[in-house]
């Protein structure tokens, strides 16, 4: 079976989404996937030392699985991730973004801080791409613990000081495992 190619593109202001993205990458690599971890950057265009490369359209075209991460911004995705997604018009227009597995992950400061609406807003773009949404649903017992069938999510607390722990890591592991599994079935 060919190696599954996974691209993870995210925006992270406080580091939580970056931590989540790293966990997804580690889990995907442990399953034999080839992974490209990409950050759209922060408030300037200068890469920070140690931060992953910036994403390019080729990173999405190359992938079998695309995982997109953003903190909530008023119940929506962060503008920097949206700018990147909006730059993919040429690839969308030629069908290069279709028929790939997509899923999302997010974080917010509070439990009801817009996690579900952020993921749903993200999925509007994926639907236009012709992507195949592979959300976790309630396909694993861990989803009854973290409570988010739309993707993986984490509550940071108002001070952004609640670290990503076992519940979130289990949800992230399930998300990427499910996405890779479905992609492998589709490409078999």
Automatic annotation (TrEMBL):
Source superkingdom: Bacteria
Domain Flavodoxin-like: 6-163
E.C. numbers: 1.6.5.2
Assigned keywords, A-Z: Oxidoreductase
Alphabetical list of InterPro entries matching this protein: Flavodoxin/NO_synth, Flavoprotein-like_sf, FMN_Rdtase-like_dom
Family annotation (PANTHER family): FLAVODOXIN-RELATED PROTEIN WRBA-RELATED (PTHR30546), FLAVOPROTEIN-LIKE PROTEIN YCP4-RELATED (PTHR30546:SF23)
UniProt-recorded name of the protein: NAD(P)H dehydrogenase (Quinone)
Protein species of origin: Microlunatus antarcticus
């Amino acid at each position: 079976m060919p190696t599954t190619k996974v691209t993870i593109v995210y925006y992270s202001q406080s580091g939580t989404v970056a931590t989540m993205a790293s966990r997804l990458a580690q889990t995907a690599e442990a399953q034999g996937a080839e992974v490209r971890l990409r950050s759209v950057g922060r408030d300037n265009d200068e890469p920070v030392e140690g931060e992953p490369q910036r994403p390019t359209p080729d990173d999405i075209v190359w992938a079998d699985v695309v995982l997109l991460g953003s903190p909530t911004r008023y119940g929506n995705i962060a503008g920097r991730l949206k700018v990147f997604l909006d730059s993919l018009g040429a690839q969308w227009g030629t069908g290069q973004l279709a028929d790939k597995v997509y899923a999302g992950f997010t974080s917010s400061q509070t439990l009801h801080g817009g996690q579900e609406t952020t993921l749903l807003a993200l999925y509007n773009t994926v639907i236009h791409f012709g992507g195949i949404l592979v959300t976790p649903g309630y396909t694993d017992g861990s989803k009854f613990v973290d409570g988010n069938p739309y993707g993986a999510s984490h509550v940071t607390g108002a001070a952004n000081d609640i670290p990503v722990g076992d519940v979130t890591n289990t949800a992230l592991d399930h998300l990427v495992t499910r996405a890779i599994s479905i992609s492998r079935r589709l490409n078999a």
